[in-house]
């Protein structure tokens, strides 16, 4: 992954704070944010903070990982449905690979997601951890 | 619009051949397949030349490979769906009246690099900012869809192993296939985990390949070939770049849209299709594709496969080449292989498992997790 400071910086609101988009016409809320609505096609959306708690809809334990991610392997990846119904795909952490189940409660936590070598930028982002 | 010439190389790991030689080898066979030829432009379907080989300007490389320096050309990229999209662009160049003869070339090289490097390059098909950056691979995204499918439709792991077993059976008879060994259900369910529940034997292999088709307008086609195959309908469509914001992960918009357009244009319906090549980069992709094309209802394809449907002789017979699973999946070239295979089924000279008297065929190719899909319908 080629990383630059500006590239990481401009995604900070959505990647650090879990900001999504809300369509100004059909009111659908979605993640990641987009300037137009992917559902009704309306050309204006606004940024909103998404609920941080949700449940696991689907998951996978990824053993064959892309270059540069070996130290994180195996990566547990979850399809999470937040409390407002918005779905987010992100890694699940702080849990054993065989302890994930459908409907499991999780909440968003800020974690390191990528290091660009020994001297490059460290990228942070939202992952999900078990919640009560 | 007609397909007049076809040339393919066996998909394999060619450590001794680069893009130029692979294209040359496939093109020579396509030239041998027509009475005469005078291509005016090349369209190259390819995904990874930029990310793995630092090579853009791929059309210029292709033109030098076949000795047609001076002609125009371009590369078409739609991730693993590049090949099918290239055929549509080639069709358009003739349909627009700009050219009479177009060469569509699908080419890919993947075997020179270790799996992690290829996994990284393939992950570029997904959302770079919200999937790849987390180390989420292309297989992982498909695994999320596979588990969702198994949970929703109560399909068992063994049930979903039937597809790759069948694909290897067909691949064993296709001289162009990369994998020609037969496998069992046990082989599938005990193979190494790539991204649970996807295992190695659910996944298309990494390989190199090149396939070429020559397209011609109606008047020219009759002169070039005694057995031209008509392209009767085509269409393409998209779904979300990221999977998070998709509404129906098990029923991608891209497949439905592409199929609707192609069926409408050809005035045919799924029940008219005799033979099809569909995109099965992973077992789950086969199920979603069969359902999205209208060959099965939602959640029904795995049961129909269990009942023996879509096998050779059924209508439609699907993936007699062995599919991406066994024929192989040199990603950006695959869509061109599929069109070539269907055209040969309709001509009656496909050298592997072949059904007799096939009149109407369909090729469906997709990039990403059914992110960019093309459907091409052909008639004898």
Short account of what is shown:
By secondary structure, chain A is mainly beta. Helices cover 8% and strands 42% of the residues of chain A. In chain A, the strands form two sheets. Chain A has a five-stranded antiparallel β-sheet with strand order 6-5-4-7-8. In chain A, strands 2-1-3 form a three-stranded antiparallel β-sheet.
Query: What count of domains describes the coordinates of chain B?
Result: 2
What separation lies between the terminal Cα atoms of chain A?
A: 35 Å
Q: Ranges of chain B with pLDDT <50 over ≥5 residues? A: none
> What's the oligomerization state?
heterodimer
User: What letter string, H or E per element, gives the SSE order of chain B?
Assistant: EHEHHEHEHHHHEEEHEHEHHEHHEE
Helix content of chain B: 25-40%
Describe this structure in words.
Chain A is 8% helix and 42% strand. With 132 residues, chain A is mostly beta strands. Chain B folds into 2 domains: 2-113 and 207-229, 3-Layer(aba) Sandwich (Peroxisomal Thiolase, Chain A, domain 1); 137-202 and 232-379, Peroxisomal Thiolase, Chain A, domain 1, CATH 3.40.47. In chain B, a hairpin with a 4-residue loop joins strand 11 and strand 12. In chain B, helix 1 (19-32) packs across helix 3 and helix 4 (82-95) packs across helix 14 (334-347). The radius of gyration of chain B is 19 Å and the shape is globular. The mean pLDDT of chain B is 97.
């Amino acid at each position: 992954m080629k990383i630059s400071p500006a590239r990481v910086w401009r995604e900070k609101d959505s990647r650090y704070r879990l900001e999504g988009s809300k369509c100004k016409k059909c009111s659908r809320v979605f993640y990641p944010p987009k300037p137009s609505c992917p559902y009704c096609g309306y050309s204006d959306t606004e940024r909103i903070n998404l609920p941080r708690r949700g449940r696991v809809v689907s998951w996978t334990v990824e053993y064959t990982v892309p270059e540069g991610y070996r130290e994180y392997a195996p990566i547990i990846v979850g399809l999470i449905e937040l409390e407002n119904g918005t779905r987010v795909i992100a890694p699940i952490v702080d849990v054993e690979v065989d302890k994930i189940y459908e409907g499991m409660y999780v909440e968003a936590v800020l974690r390191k997601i990528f290091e660009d070598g020994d001297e490059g930028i460290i990228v942070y982002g939202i992952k999900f951890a078990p919640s009560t | 619009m007609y397909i007049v010439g076809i040339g393919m190389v066996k998909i394999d790991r060619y450590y001794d051949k680069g893009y130029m030689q692979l294209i040359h080898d496939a093109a020579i066979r396509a030239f041998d397949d027509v009475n005469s030829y005078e291509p005016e432009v090349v369209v190259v379907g390819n995904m990874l030349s930029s990310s793995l080989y630092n090579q853009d300007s791929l059309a210029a490389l292709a033109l030098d490979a076949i000795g047609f320096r001076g002609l125009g050309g371009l590369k078409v990229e739609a991730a693993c769906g590049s090949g099918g999209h290239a055929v549509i662009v080639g069709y358009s160049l003739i349909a627009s009246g700009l050219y009479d003869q177009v060469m569509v070339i699908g080419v890919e090289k993947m075997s020179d690099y270790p799996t992690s490097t290829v996994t990284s390059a393939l992950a570029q098909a997904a959302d770079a900012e919200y999937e790849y950056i987390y180390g989420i691979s292309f297989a992982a995204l498909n695994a999320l869809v596979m588990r969702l499918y198994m949970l929703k439709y109560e399909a068992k792991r063994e049930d979903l192993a039937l597809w790759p077993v069948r694909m290897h059976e067909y691949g064993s008879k296709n001289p162009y296939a990369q994998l020609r060994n037969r496998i069992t259900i046990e082989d599938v369910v005990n193979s190494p985990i790539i991204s649970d529940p996807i295992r190695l034997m659910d996944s298309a292999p990494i390989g190199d390949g090149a396939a070429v088709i020559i397209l011609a307008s109606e008047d020219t086609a009759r002169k070039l070939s005694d057995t031209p195959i008509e392209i009767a309908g085509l269409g393409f469509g998209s779904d979300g770049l990221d999977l998070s914001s998709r509404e129906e992960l098990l029923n991608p918009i891209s497949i439905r849209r592409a199929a609707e357009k192609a069926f409408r244009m050809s005035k045919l319906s799924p029940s008219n299709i005799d033979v099809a090549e569909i995109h099965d980069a992973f077992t789950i992709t086969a199920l979603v594709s069969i359902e999205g094309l209208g060959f099965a209802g939602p959640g029904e394809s795995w049961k129909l496969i269990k009942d023996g449907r879509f096998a050779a002789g059924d209508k439609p017979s699907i993936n007699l080449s062995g599919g991406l699973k066994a024929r192989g999946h040199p990603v950006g070239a695959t869509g061109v292989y599929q069109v070539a295979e269907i055209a040969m089924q309709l001509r009656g000279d496909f050298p592997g498992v072949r059904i007799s008297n096939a009149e109407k065929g369909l090729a469906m190719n997709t990039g990403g997790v059914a992110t960019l899909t093309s459907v091409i319908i052909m008639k004898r």
